Amino acid sequence: MQERTKRPPRGPMTSTIVVCDDEELIRWSLCAHLEKEGYHPIPATNGREALDAVAEHGASLLLTDLKMPVLDGLSALRELREGGSTIPVIVLTAHGAVESAIEATQLGASDYLQKPFDVREVTLAIQRALKTDQLRHEVHYLRRQLNEGYGAFVGRAPVLEPLYQILGRLESVDAPTVLITGESGTGKDVLARAIHAHGPRAGKPFVAVDCASLPEQLIESELFGHERGAFTDAKSLKQGLFEVADNGLVFLDEIGELPLPTQSKLLRALENRTFKRVGGVRRYSLNVGILAATNRDLKAEVDAGRFREDLYFRLNIIRIHVPPLRERVEDIPLLVDHFLAQFGNRLGRSLDGIDGPAMERLQSYNWPGNVRELRNVLERLVLLAPEPIVAVEHLPPEIQFARSSRSTDGDCPFTLPEDGVDLEAVERGLMLQALERTGWNQSASARLLGISRYALRYRLEKHNIKR
């Protein structure tokens, strides 16, 4: 039987997949199926040929049998990883060789499939592995951005597009004022630092002021400075932050907390581009850009008489809104990977990742504390999670048992009996039913139960379920 090696029409998204199996029929049928699915398959009869093909064609994925002559699948996988290659590898194993498949996953294989398999199952496994690899590359790219100052708000969600457009313009425009709005924990402070790091005043001072934490009687002194003897405790002259940040940027975090008298002085300074120290008569030039952030609705604060309308108009010339995390849940996997790596390096204890059901819980949770709350949850998991892969039961209770914002009453297909149930027994029974229905195929059983294969294996061990 002749191998199918003809290259299909390739678009930018076509992936090259090396198919390695010493059985010609399996090799040919897999190549034929993958070509039909729009991939570019490269056949190989043993591990050595597979490694050569991966190197020659820049393959996106290796699909390999384990037991082969010349060089077996495990040895090929080991050589790949020792050589620094991170491409996804899916191993095919005969029934009863699960231990070898598990060893392959420990060496870095993305997945394993037992023979005989359904080609549709192969397609799904490839799609999952390529998607995971794509996310890994995106996370690597985003980490570079994070190291350069782009932080918690970074993502690819469409809702961030207006933010990116304004950021791009601010890289070449020296805006006198920028107003950043958004809920607490969305990353407004990180965004402010990014604007500084990538704008015309990069390399100049960046001074942050938490307006909510300063006592009212000290705010003006902090911003404008004071002369000696200006008030009881003014034993010496003090430069204000507007002087300290000369030629740079001042970040007024939670500007909605400023008292009205200070708002008036800030407005005059912005309009005249000059200011006086408290207790002084000399005017100093205001040569700083102002970044202001708030979690309040400043227009409502104006209507309530708590914020000056003229200052609001002065600040609101360029406005950037940072959306809450619940509006960009597609960014959660990227943020999870970033924070797990960050805390792993810092704390010296790493996790391998989050399983499917746990990630679904993270994406369905409402996140009232936004990215800051997610960051705190992941720091706790790195410190305390008992397993290298985080499962649902490792998550905080408020996330484990939170009702999804996408769910409605009546979604559950089961009715709780009046006298209650033994939940552990129900779970064990459902798992056994799924396994019996699928002929003990773990991948198919996991799909029936709506959980990942890792979560299924975890529960098999938990309930001591064996065939």
Describe, in plain words, how this protein is organized in 3D.
By secondary structure, the chain is α/β, with parallel strands linked by helices. It has 19 helices and 16 strands. It folds into four domains: 16-141, Rossmann fold (3-Layer(aba) Sandwich); 158-323, P-loop containing nucleotide triphosphate hydrolases (Rossmann fold), CATH 3.40.50; 326-411, Orthogonal Bundle (Helicase, Ruva Protein, domain 3), CATH 1.10.8; 415-467, Arc Repressor Mutant, subunit A (Orthogonal Bundle). Helices cover 45% and strands 13% of the residues. The strands form five sheets. It has a five-stranded parallel beta sheet with strand order 2-1-3-4-5, sandwiched between helices. Helix 2 (47-57) packs parallel to helix 3 and helix 17 (423-437) packs across helix 18. The chain is elongated and about 90 Å long.
